[in-house]
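User: For my dataset I need records formatted as: sequence, then structure tokens, nothing else. Please produce one.
Assistant:
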Amino acid sequence: MEDDDLPRMRSDAASQLAKEALDTYSQDELMARIQLLEAEIARVKTHHSKAADHRKFADALFKPRETD
């Protein structure tokens, strides 16, 4: 598998969810699905925040020193 395939594979997962017919789900099943998706969104946001903090730390650590 090529690295170029990763963004396409990731978007395919979202596309699969978006294409799924929801008509067969009950209201309770739809609410459960919403809760699951919201939990996944929260997990991704938490990871994104940690990654951003890590990036800031790395940028500060490897920032070129200013010469006097």
